[in-house]
Fold this protein.
Amino acid sequence: MTAATATPPDRSAASPLRVTQARVVLSEWTKFRSLRSTVITLAVAVVITIVISLVFALVMGSNYATMAPADKHSFNAASTSLNGDLFAQLAFGVLGVLVMTGEYSTGMIRATLTAVPRRLPVLWAKITVFTLCAGIIALITNLVSFYAGQAGLSGHDLQVSLTSPGAIRIVGGATLYVTAVGIMGIALGALVRSTAGAISSLVGLLFVIPPVLNLLPQSWTTYFGKYLPADAGQASWVFHPGPGLTDRLSPWAGFVVMCLWVIGLVVIAAIQLLRRDA
Amino acid sequence: MIEVDGLTKKYGDKTAVDGISFAVEPGIVTGFLGPNGAGKSTTMRIIAGLDAPTHGIVRVNGRSYRDSTAPMAELGIMLEARAVHTGRSARSHLLALAQTNGVPAKRVGEVIDMVGLAEVAAKRVGGFSLGMGQRLGVAAALLGDPRTVVLDEPVNGLDPEGVLWIRHLLRALADEGRTVFISSHLMSEMALTAQHLIIVGRGRLIADTTVEGFIAQASGNVTRVSSPQAHALSAQLSAANVTVAHLDAETLEVTGLTAREIGIIAWEEHIPVVELTTKRVSLEDAFMELTHDAVDYRSSADTIPAPAGAR
């Protein structure tokens, strides 16, 4: 290391290049929109939400007259018109997973993390881009679903308007829920790194653990069940008949618990992203 | 400038890199040479900050790469395994990378032209040939106009025209004062491209030498000389630093003197010489000789016990 003989002038200080969080967000936006799979998955989420919601509205509307009084009591027109989100959440979750695992499965992560060696800006940027894109599209989709569903229910005089009590909260709650599921997908993708593994983990967390918990003694189920991410996150917008409704957290408590799940997973993902070899 | 100091990397109980130290100087092309599994790619991943060393320090342009504020201006790297999302076009891929560091979008077009991918820049990378993938990797490495360029097996998959192109490109980058570090398992290719060699085997440093030095060492300065008066010639040639081996009654192998020197001595002593040849060892042979004990995966019937501590 005989110094300075042929060392090029130190350009790094003069170089206009610099990694900033805003630049990494712009980069992730370019990545997000330049993949066909992203666009297709989002389109699937939109179609599932609107079509299934409308089917629910039409079926529930025509069945309403013959429903049991208890079911009539728990019927909520706004919630019914967003039931498609219960299915579309999986598409949003898969999109979140793909945002991360697409990089690992193709090796792109090596280029990404070499360009941004501090790593964390990449995770924040992915979450930001996903939250904005998926959140805005989910909101528009849910508004379309809401109006389509209300139109379907109007034949039975069951429709509500967006200004009816709770309607805005329900539309907003469903939007935040599917977006949060996607962010959990990003975090699980960063942790598990494989697409199949991350999707399985997400499905397990959302759909498998709740029924498995039902095998435990009833007191445990009622105590822990409402704190699971799906139950907590749906407290603000899902009203379905049957047991469990009374054990729900209040809408905002549920939302907070859901956020804690998201934050917890993201923090673990961030720590692992920094610690593990890429 | 890349400084590797006491670098060790273990994956579980497999030691991929075992305490190597070397420096890669700017202004020249340095070849990183070793058989498959020698630890070249691992070392390069650590240089890029992708893997953390178990022990030791790696500095790029004087500091840890993970701490640099303008990473793409410091280091451009192409790793052996592809690092491109197959669903994206070459242009989008490069643009996304450029944006992280604020590299202007017009630079993306420049590097695409530079590596000759202009016609396919809008196509999805999944359909690229190995050679096109290599060119895209080089383009990504050059995006930030980096002071240090590291390429893992850049010649792989390139056609002869591409090989020539990369050779000229690497020389040009070094001539501009950049640090250029390229790996290969082909000695002959390195001899044409590199000026300095870092040779590793089984994660250990075997040689840190100039290409000229390696060639000189490899050919060993052995001269074969035949004479009807071999014994008389042998007596005349004997001196300090000169060894003479008798192959048969008329043939000697002389180490430590050039053919020219031997010819002049013989003429001065009036000893007839009927053959005078400098013995050449091919670079590939010399490399094989040097790394013989350090080859991880060899063909059967030639297995030798591992050197102590290598595994």
Summary: The CA atoms of residues 226 and 251 of chain B lie 4 Å apart. Chain B has two domains: 2-209, 221-278. The first helix of chain B runs from residue 40 to 47.
